[in-house]
Each structure stands twice: as structure tokens, then as C-alpha cells.
């Protein structure tokens, strides 16, 4: 198992290139850039086997939507079905940290509005909702080949006024306060490799009055045996709290107590409470492990506004 350098994996210091602030991992492969592309106005692509395609006729720059000039398509006229295809190489899998015994996750920042996804012609899942991220485990679909083909079919009905759309217009041209549509892939796409039991959801709750932080951790599956879990809280690279426990459940909560003003860590509570001019950002390293810690780094404001002084 590969050791992780926590000094290099700190969400509070990441430059924004990683697509999300939570669950920052040291190794991942960015799939943004050119994909092959087709518009399916007749809705015949699925019946014609486009999901097995190794390339369409046009090229689009992901994650720009096809209505945007930056995508290379620049077509704001109403369309409802879009197909995307991209080859993934063995080198990109290596960049993502994938190796035998691990699970390969295909992550989408957002696809508007419904989508289906295939890898090497095998369906791996889909998603409904144009504004939320999702992840698909594609390990089972990987063929025994040097390259792999990802195909995405996005369906976004421009006339469906009941579909959540923000301020996207349902008419051909924008009117009043409405804007042109944004369809298909419009947020980053990336690959990352994780152990069979990995952190799937991480949610933080801070309690300023009790000077504590609680992590809700959801695992990808129920562990087959008691599995050690470590959560570490650091501020500006300095550890201020750590909890080690074990779990055989797929979900658990871990509460870390922040040190008091005169305790050993030497950090007053107000030093890590958010307030003007900018919030203070803390790093949490944690996750399930067997022999070594599997890091899951998160980035979140460390507290609310400083408490009012005593009167």
C-alpha cells in the first residue's frame, strides 16, 4: 500500500486544480480536455449502438457545455441528446494510482440533466440532476486492453419547464431574465483509485460552544471485520486533535475535541474560529486503514463567528 505524504496533501493549501474541496486524494487523473462529440436530435444513438463507439465526428472541450464557444461547439440552438466519448490510457490509470486490487472511480462534477455512462461498452451507471456531483465505480467494466473507452449520453429536454433549470431559458432565444441553456457535461471529470473499503461520504459539523468537530464518515461498503479508523485535525500544518477507533459498520461519527487555551497544543480556540477578514481553514486527515493510514483530507471552515464576550 502506498504511503501518503500529508505535508503535500492539504486541502487548505490546494491550488484549486483538484475538482472538489472534500476527499482530496494525492493521486488522480484529470479527464478535462478534448472528447469526441455528437448531437443526437433523432434519438437513434442508443439503438445504433453509439455506446460502443470509439469516437464521434466532432470534438468538444470538456467541461465547457456545447452551447459555449469555449467548448469548440458553440451551438446555443435547442438540442436534447448529446454523446461524449474519450479514450483513457494505461498511463492515465497509473496517474490515478490504479493497480490490481483497487477500485477505479469515475467522477463527474455535474452533467445536465440526465446521463448514462458506459466503459468499454459496459453500462456502469447514470445520474439525474444537473447541478450535483456523482461517482461511478467502473472497475468491473475495464476490458483487458491498453486503452479504455468512456461514453456518456446526456439528455436535457430544453422544453421541459418542470425540470430544475435555474435561469436557463426554455425558448429558442433568451428572453426577460433568462439565459441560454447549459447542457451535458459542464463540470470537471476525473479518475481516482481507492481501496475496496474507502471513504465515500465525509461531512463535518462544528460546535463552537463545545469547541468540537464531528466527522460523519460513510464507507463504500461494510467492512468484513473491525477496521481501524483514524481522524486527525490540523491547523496550519500543526496537529491539534486526533482520534483513533475501530468500526465494523458502514457509517460512523467521530468527534474531536479542540484544545483549550492553555492546553498542550498551545492554540487558543479563537485562533481556529472563523471570522473576518477570512475564515481559517483546517485540514483533517483520516480514513479507514489496515496497515497504514489511508488519508482522506477535507477542507472546511473550522467554526462559526467568535463568541460574544462575557457581559
Distance between the termini: 55 Å
Shape label:
globular
Element string (H = helix, E = strand)? EEEEHEEEEEEEEEEEEEEE
Structural class: mainly beta
Task: Determine the number of helices (DSSP H or I, runs of at least 4 residues).
Answer: 1
Mean pLDDT: 83
Total strands: 19
Q: Describe the largest sheet.
A: 6 strands, antiparallel
Report the sheet-strand fraction. 35-45%
Order of strands across the main sheet = 3-2-4-10-7-8
**Which spans have pLDDT < 50 for at least 5 consecutive residues?**
261-265, 289-311
Instruction: Compute the CA-based radius of gyration.
Output: 22 Å
Provide the helix percentage.
under 10%
Tags for this model:
311 residues; mainly beta; 4-stranded antiparallel β-sheet; 1 helix; 19 strands; 2% helix
Structural account:
With 311 residues, the protein is mainly β. Helix content is 2%, strand content 39%. It has one helix and 19 strands. The chain has one helix at 90-95, and strands at 29-30, 33-39, 58-62, 81-89, 103-108, 111-112, 114-119, 122-128, 134-137, 147-155, 184-185, 189-194, 199-207, 212-219, 227-235, 238-247, 251-257, 281-288, 298-301. Strand 13 and strand 14 form a beta hairpin. The longest helix has 6 residues, at 90-95. It is globular.
Amino acid at each position: 500500500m502506498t504511503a501518503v505524504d500529508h505535508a503535500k496533501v492539504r486541502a487548505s493549501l490546494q491550488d484549486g486544480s483538484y475538482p472538489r474541496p472534500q476527499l482530496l486524494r494525492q493521486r488522480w487523473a484529470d479527464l478535462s480536455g478534448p472528447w469526441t462529440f455528437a448531437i443526437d436530435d433523432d434519438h437513434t444513438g442508443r439503438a445504433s449502438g453509439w455506446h460502443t463507439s470509439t469516437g464521434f465526428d466532432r470534438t468538444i472541450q470538456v467541461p465547457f457545455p456545447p452551447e459555449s464557444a469555449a467548448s469548440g461547439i458553440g451551438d446555443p440552438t435547442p438540442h436534447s441528446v448529446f454523446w461524449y466519448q474519450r479514450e483513457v490510457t494505461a498511463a492515465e490509470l497509473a496517474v490515478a494510482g490504479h493497480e490490481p486490487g483497487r477500485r477505479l472511480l469515475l467522477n463527474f462534477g455535474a452533467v445536465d440533466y440526465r446521463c448514462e455512462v458506459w466503459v468499454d461498452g459496459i453500462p456502469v451507471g447514470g445520474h439525474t440532476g444537473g447541478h450535483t456531483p456523482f461517482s461511478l465505480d467502473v472497475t468491473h467494466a475495464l476490458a483487458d486492453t491498453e486503452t479504455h473507452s468512456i461514453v456518456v449520453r446526456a439528455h436535457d429536454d430544453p422544453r421541459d419547464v418542470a425540470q430544475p433549470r435555474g435561469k436557463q431559458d426554455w425558448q429558442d432565444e433568451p428572453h426577460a431574465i433568462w439565459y441560454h441553456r447549459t447542457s451535458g457535461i459542464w463540470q470537471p471529470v476525473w479518475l481516482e483509485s481507492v481501496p475496496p473499503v474507502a471513504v465515500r461520504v465525509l461531512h463535518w459539523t462544528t460546535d463552537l460552544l463545545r469547541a468540537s468537530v464531528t466527522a460523519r464518515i460513510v464507507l463504500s461498503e461494510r467492512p468484513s471485520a473491525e477496521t481501524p479508523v483514524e481522524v486527525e485535525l490540523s491547523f496550519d500544518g500543526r496537529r491539534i486533535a486526533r482520534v483513533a477507533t475501530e468500526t465494523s459498520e458502514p457509517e460512523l461519527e467521530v468527534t474531536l475535541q479542540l484544545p483549550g487555551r492553555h492546553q498542550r497544543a498551545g492554540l487558543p480556540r479563537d485562533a481556529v474560529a472563523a471570522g473576518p477578514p477570512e475564515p481559517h481553514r483546517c485540514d483533517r486527515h483520516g480514513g479507514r486503514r489496515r496497515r497504514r493510514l489511508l488519508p482522506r483530507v477535507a477542507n472546511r471552515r473550522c467554526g462559526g463567528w467568535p463568541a460574544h464576550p462575557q457581559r
